Amino acid sequence: MTDTITIRKAPGKWSVRSGGAILGETTAALELLEGDKDPVIYFPRADIAMAFLDRTDKVTQCEGKGEATHFSIVNKSSVTKNAAWSYENPLDTIAEVKNHLAFYPEDSVKVERI
């Protein structure tokens, strides 16, 4: 049995940074809530500097969401492998996150409300 998934507009303005670079800012972020897990912020791809992201071979499968493709963040000072993911063909239950990216919480990646 999977946890209930709720998706809603994330209030306010959100940013994601890595290696001193701002990868994106948006007021159109989505917040995905799933059971007792921490909320996950999804950024519209249109609001992310995709030139900093390289698709990797990593693919994961989630029963309640579908198949996630992964991306590494590449900038002048570092490479953070498999730092972001995207459900490019999500299950109908989370269709809203199509064309969005989420980022793993790491020391080198900061997602924050500004």
UniProtKB/TrEMBL annotation:
Gene3D superfamilies from the UniProt entry: Domain of unknown function (DUF427)
Cross-referenced InterPro entries: DUF427, DUF427_sf
Domain DUF427: 15-106
Pfam family, one: NTP_transf_9
Domain of life: Bacteria
Protein name, per record: Uncharacterized protein (DUF427 family)
Organism: Ruegeria conchae
Source taxonomy: Bacteria, Pseudomonadati, Pseudomonadota, Alphaproteobacteria, Rhodobacterales
